[in-house]
Design brief:
Its main location: cytoplasm. InterPro entries: Class_I_gatase-like, HST_MetA, MetA_family. It is built from ten helices and twelve strands. By secondary structure, it is an alpha/beta fold. Helix 1 crosses helix 3. Strands 1, 2, 3, 4, 5, 6, 7, 8, 9, 10, 11 and 12 form a twelve-stranded mixed beta sheet that branches. Strand 1, helix 1 and strand 2 form a beta-alpha-beta unit. The chain has a domain of about 210 residues: Rossmann fold. About 0% of the residues have low confidence.
């Protein structure tokens, strides 16, 4: 089934070229079906790229999905045209009286800042608190996962000796849980972050279950016991070239940065990286939408 997005959204052309089934709202209204309502809190600087990455995964399911894009009013985005935000995005004030079947909170390149020093932290905590009563299930990605662990469960982060960037092996620890249904016992996923979360601390929290760990013995996929919160510490949504672009950006800035591990063929930045985690990205989003959103959300929110 299709994903419903505005006709003019730039991501639409990319998705149609990839044969992702998209439709506009006019056509969607002719179908006698209630679509899942998903709100995406997009905290990434390159909002258009993140839109495409997430919509690609949301659109590859048998469910009809209607997406609302949200940006923080308390932060001025420097890497996106104001006209794009005005045309395609809402702020929390616009949607606070609505209810959603699912919500995605993206990562953000601010993990070295204490949470309370992030200029939109108060607004984000308001949204996370609101989600307890207005959203069926929330998917948190990278810094968004760290923010959720800190706000909902009091679990902090710590700084790594150097940036974790590359594609790493991960292992399924709870294969019978529906979120990882169909996963290989070992799979790959990209990471791009300066901080991490203690596996022991997460495991000690009785409200959380670690479903997958990384080869560095860090938590990768975490599920709350009430199944309302899903936290991914990496970036399964990244496309093949994202880490390469981040690496080139850091080099141009003169930053001391390592070549992403296990990413470029022969460890050569001049070679085109392969997309080796695509299938598990689609599987994770499909499982989340089916088992934790569609199967759990009320048909009528009232």
């Amino acid at each position: 089934m299709p994903i419903n997005i505005p006709k003019q959204l730039p991501a639409r052309n990319v998705l149609e070229q990839e044969n992702i089934f998209v439709m506009d709202l006019d056509r969607a209204h002719t179908q006698d079906i209630r679509p899942l309502k998903i709100v995406i809190v997009n905290l990434m600087p390159d909002k258009e790229r993140t839109e495409t990455q997430l919509l690609r995964l949301l659109g590859n399911t048998p469910l009809q999905v209607s997406v609302t894009l949200l940006h923080t009013a308390s932060h001025q985005s420097k890497n996106v045209e104001p006209s794009h935000l005005k045309q395609f995005y809402n702020t929390f004030e616009n949607i606070k009286d609505k209810r959603f079947d699912g919500m995605i909170i993206t990562g953000a390149p601010i993990e070295q800042l204490p949470f309370e020093e992030v200029d939109y932290w108060r607004e984000l905590t308001t949204i996370m608190e609101w989600s307890k009563t207005h959203v069926t299930s929330v998917l948190h990605i990278c810094w968004g996962a760290q923010a959720a662990l800190y706000y909902h469960y009091g679990i902090g982060k710590f700084e790594l000796p150097q940036k974790c960037t590359g594609v790493y092996k991960h292992y399924v620890k709870k294969p019978t849980v529906e979120l990882v249904r169909g996963f290989d016992e070992e799979f790959l996923a990209p990471h791009s972050r300066y901080t991490s979360t203690s596996l022991e601390t997460v495991q000690a929290c009785e409200d959380l279950t670690v479903l997958c760990t990384s080869e560095e013995n860090e938590p990768f996929l975490i599920l709350s016991k009430d199944e309302k919160h899903v936290m991914i510490t990496g970036h399964l949504e990244y496309d093949a070239k994202t880490l390469a672009d981040e690496y080139e950006r850091d080099v141009k800035k003169g930053l001391k940065t390592d070549i992403p591990e296990n990413y470029f063929p022969n460890n050569d930045p001049g070679q085109k990286p392969l997309h080796r985690w695509r299938s598990h990205a689609h599987l994770l989003f499909s499982n989340w939408l089916n088992y934790y959103v569609y199967q759990e959300t009320p048909f009528e929110w009232e």
